[in-house]
TrEMBL record, chain A:
Topology of the protein relative to the lipid bilayer: Multi-pass membrane protein
GO CC annotation, single: membrane
Family membership: Belongs to the complex I subunit 4 family.
Domain of life: Bacteria
Location of the NADH:quinone oxidoreductase/Mrp antiporter transmembrane domain: 131-413
Molecular function terms, GO-annotated: NADH dehydrogenase (ubiquinone) activity; NADH dehydrogenase activity; ubiquinone binding
Protein name in the entry: Proton-translocating NADH-quinone oxidoreductase, chain M
Record key words, sorted: Membrane, Transmembrane, Transmembrane helix
One Pfam family, short name: Proton_antipo_M
Localization: Endomembrane system; Membrane
From TrEMBL, chain B:
UniProt keywords, alphabetically: Cell membrane, Membrane, NAD, Quinone, Translocase, Transmembrane, Transmembrane helix, Transport, Ubiquinone
Family matches, as InterPro entries: NADH-Q_OxRdtase_suN/2 (IPR010096), ND/Mrp_TM (IPR001750)
Membrane topology: Multi-pass membrane protein
Organism: Solidesulfovibrio magneticus str. Maddingley MBC34
Protein name: NADH-quinone oxidoreductase subunit N
């Protein structure tokens, strides 16, 4: 295997959880299983530290690892990290130990299998974000479904069978056409390698269909309105750790897919569909906010708020401006931290009250001040309060929107206000409402719970107060993607006021010089 | 070229003879103790003969990459089926003659893999079919088994007649029965209308074996009626024989000829019909029966492509198909009570009653869907890319949409096993035989993660047919 830095960081991040998952199957005692998984989680975080050495202005893809997989068909084991995927990988690694800690007492049946599922999820999610071979990406993309399905189906709530099947069918059905697109790209581009495919340019007609096939898969995963219906069901029924993984990592795969594949591979089609996707994103923001406003189930409320937040992410992506896209990536990270934290806290609350209804969890401010403090932090972050992480992301997206087209910006603003309305309503009732079911035995946050939530709480403020560090790391990658996209579209002769029929006649130009340059920098 | 190059066939023939002796001896002893081991040695023999090349019997019998690849797979499948059957201690019908018929059928299929002349090919096919006609009704005094036997033989006789009729047309039009001679001529309808009609009819004989629409009607009924162990055999190994012949025949027709278009259309209809029908099944064996109709359709992707990549994809997929189906049938045999047909509800709570079986079932089901990282996914990817490269875009779209249909019922298996609740007692299944199921599941995963060695073998075999 060829590695860039001597030590295969990304492979280690994938192999360690897989090996641990196999080892767990031979362990008998629950305590050993939990401690082992926790240790693996901490190890995972430590192993991911070298990724912080990512050089923003360096090669397009760093920490590249390459090995033969199936030479006959040109499939390679090809891993690498760039600005788009760096923070997603770090977030995935961080979530593993937190999920283990968060489920320490929550999960009491089939403990071994639960932790095996967590480990498999972590491995495949990191694989999705780091894969630079189209087939490899698809393998991880689909492999993640099985452990997630089991997490919902086995450890979920009363309607878990319905929710898990819906989740599985929806996401798998969406991604079947992605496989057809992968096969088609191989025929047209001659390879499965993503960097090589990015160098090439394709005829508009091909881009059109390929974009649709890929966008369907990604839009369902995000989930974009109107493909979001699986999300509330899955979130409500999943156990706390499942919801956290779902919100923090799984949803990001869809938006990551848009950035990694739709923009660089099918730039002309992305440009053509952008108005539609922007409209759908805004519809998602408003719709998610409105529905969240009417929920009585806390988990459902947060689930619908996710639809709104992810709408901001897709909106930012399809603005095609550096501000918009960096806002989107930041918002992906922020949503993972904030919503992950909120779901974790709801899990802790559920352990105490055995209910997710707002009415059963009212007026806790007096009795559980530490809990409410952190809940308040995450809630404020969720409504993008200045000083918290989400503020930065949302403001960047909104700036991008106003720059591009003020009407788009105006349309998105009510979404931000709705977020304040539903989160403050929730926060107010849970903190100061009339206590309904509180029992003294509930107790405030314990040490384990503090340790679970503190890292996320710190990140909320860290990114909120010093966002420049993140933005600096991701901006060069974004510029690269966007400029390659523009160069390809110009070379193709695409301009804004072309009719659809004219666009369909656009053939693929010869290789685009800038785009090729950007990628050949991969191995300096 | 020596007699040793025929070692896999000879070994299996020896087994047939040994079983024959055991069946006529006075002492009615069980052969289950030594048979899986002996069949396992047959796998080693096939592995040993993998590199053998040569021609026998006036070039009617040929050892090439394709035949040796399929002999290995057939030997492996036979060994696993005997292992599964040996695990069933209650089965009263599992006498030496049962195993003799099984071995005879596998032997016929092994010969079929090497035949490159139409009449020899027909004889080998009948050799494998005749023992199946006798095997299927063997299920105590069960009426369903008798019905299944009659269905199988009636369908089989009709289709065989059709195939022979087609064969006569081919001989009349082309004046040769050697595949190499046939391959050298044109197969477009405009040049040789009679030969194309003849070939289509002749192919029908193999579509029947493969259970391709519209020759699939026997399939669910026979699986349901036959013993679980017999169904495990009928569902897997004879399909290999059909695939190897279809690969040989498809090698001399180019894509987008009339014959290939028929293959593509039958494939598309077969997968859709099979998947839709499987959605409503409750009986596990019927469900797997319809699923195998759908999988026959998937194989057509590679055959219709007609390229070397398509042939190797079809060969690889049939290997993946064998592995995942044997794993599924392994679980079916293991959970069956008193040789009854298990239904979906019998899977409830399998997770608690037999965790290992539940895991094997999950691996098999996800592989049948075509989820990575399993052999089913790798095989499907090869088929799709081969078909897409030859311009069968619509067929690829139909195939991926079919994956979406099929998830529901395959996931149903896993759902019952993992989320169903049941008070049924734990399943007692001899630990020693668990090794077969475990090995199958591991192989399914391994072939999905590292498909390169097997794919290269298949590609090499197909490359010889399709230079």
């Amino acid at each position: 295997m060829m590695t860039q830095n001597g030590f295969p960081v990304v492979t280690a991040l994938i192999v360690v959880p897989l090996a641990a998952a196999v080892a767990l199957l031979f362990m008998r005692r629950e305590w050993t299983v939990r401690v082992t998984t926790l240790a693996v989680g901490i190890l995972e975080c430590l192993l991911s530290l070298p990724l912080l050495g990512y050089v923003p202005d360096g090669a397009a893809f760093q920490f590249v690892e390459k090995a033969d997989w199936l030479p006959a068909l040109g499939m390679t084991y090809h891993m690498g990290v760039d600005g788009l995927s760096l923070y997603m990988i770090l977030l995935t690694a961080l979530m593993l130990p937190l999920c283990v800690l968060g489920s320490w007492t929550y999960i009491s049946k089939r403990v071994t299998e639960f932790h095996v599922c967590l480990l498999l999820m972590t491995a495949s999610c990191i694989g999705v974000f780091a894969a630079l071979d189209f087939v490899l990406f698809y393998v991880f993309w689909e492999a993640m479904l099985v452990p997630m399905y089991l997490l919902i189906a086995v450890w979920g709530g009363p309607r878990r069978r319905y929710a898990s099947i819906k989740f599985f069918l929806y996401t798998l059905a969406g991604s079947t056409l992605l496989l057809a697109a992968i096969v088609a790209f191989r025929q047209v581009g001659g390879t499965f390698s993503i960097p090589e495919l990015m160098e090439k340019s394709y005829a508009f007609k091909f881009q059109f269909w390929a974009f649709l096939a890929m966008a369907l898969a990604f839009a369902i995963k995000v989930p974009m309105f109107p493909f979001h219906t699986w999300l509330p069901a899955a979130h409500v029924e999943a156990p706390a750790a499942g919801s956290v993984l779902l919100a923090a990592i799984l949803l990001k795969m869809g938006t990551y897919g848009f950035l990694r594949f739709c923009l660089p591979l099918t730039p002309a089609a992305a440009e053509t569909f952008a108005p539609l996707l922007i409209a759908v994103s805004i519809a998602g923001i408003i719709y998610g906010g409105c529905i969240a406003l009417g929920q009585t189930d806390i988990k459902k409320l947060i689930a619908y708020s996710s639809v709104g937040h992810m709408g901001f992410v897709t909106l930012g992506i399809f603005l095609f401006s550096v501000k918009g896209v960096s806002g989107a990536i930041l918002q992906m990270l922020n949503h993972g931290i904030t919503t992950g934290g909120l779901f974790m806290m709801i899990g802790l609350l559920y352990e105490r009250s055995h209910s997710r209804e707002i009415a059963d969890n009212q007026g806790l401010g007096k009795f559980m001040p530490a809990f409410m403090f952190l809940f308040g932090v995450f809630s404020l972050s969720s409504l993008a309060f200045p000083g918290t992480n989400s503020f930065i992301g949302e403001v960047l997206v909104l700036i991008g929107a106003f720059q591009g087209n003020p009407w788009v910006g105006f349309a998105a603003v009510p979404g931000a206000m709705l977020a304040a309305a539903y989160m403050l309503r929730l926060l107010q009732r849970v903190t100061w409402g009339e206590p309904a079911a509180y029992k003294p035995s509930w107790g405030d946050l314990g040490l384990r719970e503090w340790v679970t939530l503190a890292p996320l709480g710190i990140l909320v403020f860290y990114i909120g107060l010093a966002p420049a560090l993140c933005i600096k790391t991701i901006e060069p990658s974004i510029t690269r993607v966007l400029s390659a996209m523009e160069a390809k579209n110009t070379a193709m002769g695409l301009h804004k006021d072309m009719s659809m029929a004219e666009r369909f006649n656009l053939a693929a130009p010869l290789a685009v010089a800038e785009a090729a340059d950007a990628v050949s920098k991969e191995h300096p | 070229m020596s007699i040793f190059s025929l070692l896999p066939e000879l070994w299996l023939l020896g087994l047939v003879c040994a079983l024959f002796v055991a069946s006529i001896s006075d002492k009615k002893q069980s052969v289950a103790s030594w048979l899986p081991m002996a069949a396992g040695l047959g796998v080693l023999a096939a592995l040993f003969a993998l590199g053998e090349r040569g021609e026998f019997l006036y070039a009617a019998y040929k050892l090439d990459g394709l035949s040796q690849f399929f002999k290995l797979v057939i030997a492996f499948g036979f060994a696993v089926v005997t292992g599964i059957a040996a695990g069933n201690k209650e089965g009263k019908d599992l006498t030496p003659d049962y195993f003799m018929l099984l071995a005879l059928s596998a032997w016929g299929l092994m010969l079929l893999a090497s035949c490159v002349e139409l009449i020899t090919l027909y004889l080998a096919l009948e050799l494998s079919s005749y023992s199946l006609y006798a095997l299927i009704p063997l299920r105590g005094k069960d009426r369903r088994a008798a019905e299944a036997g009659i269905k199988y033989i009636l369908f089989g006789a009709a289709v065989t007649a059709l195939a022979l009729f087609g064969l006569s047309y081919i001989i009349a039009a082309k004046h040769t029965t050697y595949l190499s001679g046939l391959a050298a001529t044109s197969w477009s309808f405009a040049d040789a209308p009679m030969a194309v009609i003849g070939l289509t009819l002749f192919l029908a004989g193999f579509f029947y074996k493969l259970a391709l629409f519209p020759f699939h009607f026997w399939c669910p009924d026979v699986y349901q009626g036959a013993k679980n162990e017999t169904a495990a055999y009928v569902a897997t190994i004879p399909k290999l024989g059909a695939v190897v012949v279809l690969v040989r025949l498809a090698a001399f027709v180019a894509p987008h000829l009339e014959v290939t278009t028929i293959l593509a259309i039958l494939g598309a209809v077969s997968m859709t019909a099979g998947n839709l029908a499987a959605l409503v099944q409750r009986d596990l064996k019927r469900l797997l029966g319809f699923s195998s109709v759908a999988h026959a359709g998937y194989v057509m992707l590679g055959l219709a492509a007609g390229s070397a990549a398509g042939m190797s994809a079809a060969a690889f997929y049939s290997l993946a198909y064998i592995l995942m189906n044997l794993a599924a049938f392994y679980v079916v045999c293991a959970i069956a009570k008193n040789d009854e047909n298990p239904s979906l509800d019998d899977l409830d709570g399998l997770y608690k009653r037999a965790p290992a079986l539940a895991m094997i079932l999950a691996v098999a089901a996800f592989s049948l869907v075509g989820l990575p990282p399993t052999a089913g996914f790798a095989g499907k990817l090869f088929l799709l890319s081969a078909a897409w490269d030859q311009g069968y875009h619509w067929l690829v779209i139909v195939a991926v949409l079919n994956t979406a249909i099929s998830i529901y019922y395959y996931l149903g298996l896993v759902r019952h096993a993992y989320t169903g609740e049941s008070d049924a007692p734990a399943i007692v299944w001899p630990r020693g035989y668990l090794i077969f199921g475990g090995a199958l599941a591991v192989l399914v995963l391994l072939l999905g993660i590292l498909p390169a060695p097997m794919y290269d073998l298949a590609a090499q075999a197909a490359g010889q047919l399709h230079p």
